[in-house]
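Researcher: Go.
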Amino acid sequence: MELVVDVELSVRDRAILRAVERGPAELVWGSEPDLYLDGRFCCDQNAVHKLVRAGLIAPAVEGGVGQRLPAVITTAGRLELVA
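Model: Structure:
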């Protein structure tokens, strides 16, 4: 079961979700994960942190702190994009 927090999404938040959905996207996992899109660092890490905490973006596989893991948009994230 996914943990999802209700958040209000900005246009930028939705753009980040769409970019993760298109892929390739990676998270450097930790308490405040960093996002890479097409191998490039995403410049709005505050938005990324919010999206991960809200359960809209997650790593595709389990891993340890500091590992670079494939990122996916969750079911909740997909539902936010169609809302």
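Model: The chain has a mean pLDDT of 91.
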